[in-house]
UniProtKB/TrEMBL annotation, chains A, B, C:
Protein name: Hydroxyethylthiazole kinase
Keyword Transferase: yes
The UniProt record lists the keyword Isomerase: no
EC number: 2.7.1.50
Cofactors that this protein relies on: Mg(2+)
Amino acid sequence: MSVVTSSSHPSSGSISPAAAPGPDPAGAPTPGDLAGALARLREQAPLVQCLTNAVVMPLTANGLLALGASPAMVDVPQEAGPFARVASGVLVNLGTPHAAQREAMREAVTAAEEAGTPWVLDPVAIGALPVRTALAAELVERRPAVVKGNASEVMALAGLGGGGRGTDSADDVAAALPAARELAARTGGVVVVTGPVDLVTDGVLEVRVPGGHPLLTRVTGGGCLLGAVVAAFAGSSAPLVAATAACAWYGAAAAAAGRRPGAGGPGSFAVALLDELAALDPATPPAGLA
Amino acid sequence: MSVVTSSSHPSSGSISPAAAPGPDPAGAPTPGDLAGALARLREQAPLVQCLTNAVVMPLTANGLLALGASPAMVDVPQEAGPFARVASGVLVNLGTPHAAQREAMREAVTAAEEAGTPWVLDPVAIGALPVRTALAAELVERRPAVVKGNASEVMALAGLGGGGRGTDSADDVAAALPAARELAARTGGVVVVTGPVDLVTDGVLEVRVPGGHPLLTRVTGGGCLLGAVVAAFAGSSAPLVAATAACAWYGAAAAAAGRRPGAGGPGSFAVALLDELAALDPATPPAGLA
Amino acid sequence: MSVVTSSSHPSSGSISPAAAPGPDPAGAPTPGDLAGALARLREQAPLVQCLTNAVVMPLTANGLLALGASPAMVDVPQEAGPFARVASGVLVNLGTPHAAQREAMREAVTAAEEAGTPWVLDPVAIGALPVRTALAAELVERRPAVVKGNASEVMALAGLGGGGRGTDSADDVAAALPAARELAARTGGVVVVTGPVDLVTDGVLEVRVPGGHPLLTRVTGGGCLLGAVVAAFAGSSAPLVAATAACAWYGAAAAAAGRRPGAGGPGSFAVALLDELAALDPATPPAGLA
């Protein structure tokens, strides 16, 4: 797998400082940055608080455990806030936003802002669905370190409060680039647009990360888990490195899972994905990263 | 696998029109009807809204994805109604009916009725448990395109409002035939009674679908997923064809999973089931269907 | 696998009678007791009501099914109480204690007490998180047949109302022994402290159960499932036998899963664990038990 980078303003590669520790490279992340990010994650076993949808909780928690992080699905009001102060990273995924969870999300985001805990927003299926769309519009103003979505979600989120351009349900990654840049500028953070090639931008620098596997789209929560992986990396790497490392290593694990002889269908692919996340080795990055 | 059909009134094989598109055969579904139903499902990738229990959400979503449908677990009040208007089919499964989900179910069913979206009722474990039993009695009057349950559930549901015959917890499929017929007549739709041989009836025609595998009863959500598969087929086939195709193809996938050398236990069987759902091929129906 | 037993008061090996049927041995459980416990479980297929966290529901239900029990995730208010009267055992796991589930837990525990249904308390992550900690302090006074937790959880629970010793987040099993004994004396039941070697005590007798596999800690719900397995055994064995049998047989299944050639990662290990739970045979107990 290779990581292709570009920048519209290469000389001003500023990255949102947010609250994340770890090095803050002046330019696009290098393969060495990505290897270092995984090594730190494995060493620190970051506590990742997930307020996520009911469908993907098991895969999300298992994927984080396999990767080397420590998942905690603390999404009950009165607990979510205190926990976000001590977590290494927080994921807010809007897939099944029931009332109590919405309350917990607001608590967690407020606490994360105050404590400097980096948090990730995954605005699942926003656009037409009213409850999550309003919640996303509210939360995006709270400076998520990273926003991760597919092209339609990113375009919908950028449009909210930015002129009401609405959403396009059949968008590709390239079409979402202007929206991603605008959103990154507005949040002061990083935006990931997922697709066959993922796009990562802080509004200035752009990184394109190929990899992955078509079967990943046949596994429920394959995209949601990536959001949690971003939150795990954000605990010990600056947002642009964290988001790029998450896409690159996750894509490498998916590609490796797809190469397994037994993983010819979505069931066995999902099992292999967890095995491959556990088998990722910072010392031997996937071919394209070297 | 063979599909055995019979009819108490073969000359009047009427099928509930409901809102489903697709052919409306005058008699019991033929193997060709079932192959056509899968081909249409694969071509259209129907959007299936699932309001289902918390335990089986991952398997349900993964099973639908494997089959070729597009699952959407939209079960939040204020979102469930609007989504049911655009979905191809809706599943309402009463396995863990928390208050907010009950509200979302009523919304979704009302919208489905108005928009003509076919919807499937799975009255999980009704009879003794008061919350879901009352809800099932209410919802069954809203003309589900298909009701799917085991013998006890179907007998309990038919008894509700029909004379209070109550439920019998150790019923077999044959014993539930009168209840299934009555229920189909009352809803104007189709009723599926699951068991070693599934029974499908529209109140007049009866289809018996053997197949499946004993390990399916050792996988949590093995029955609940079938309800979602019925909803997926109902998006592009009339209810009797949809229900029969769902039972036949799902049973074929389960039987194939059981034949895999590695699938000797419930864990590996569940993985193989997803792989086999993805591998189903309309052009090469399972032996018994030909 | 061997089961090592010891007792601080070997001559007074009394075991909480609770409501569980089955033999009530005068001393620490023997391998024969454990074989008998599994044989009874398989014969009776106990109905195990689980009020557990959203993350582990699928694994919990699948693990119980694989073992030979009948899981029922009935956690809705107004249903949880009536069901606890007819269940063989009840699990109350505090992992994601949303408001409606808390209400259902109180209902279930009250009904279990009245009906004599043995119930198991798993005080997940109590200590710092306020909602679950308060709930655990309330429920532990309701005489759970078995409390199951890691060392930190057991120490936190023993400290509640017992002098405020608070919790220690890096405790090992040996350090939790005094807390476990005190807690057992207070509840009149049995306490399990999980770790590389599990500790089971009724306040007088102590049993140490080695076994298991390191990959079990990389599977979400690996510990939560053990709590459900305890509840399954508690339906037909006295608490000390039930808890010991659960740890021993579950550990045996995990060890066997870890020996499988293909189970080198957490994904395939979890699949193998379910297969091995189904393959457990009372007639051929694992080597160390003989």
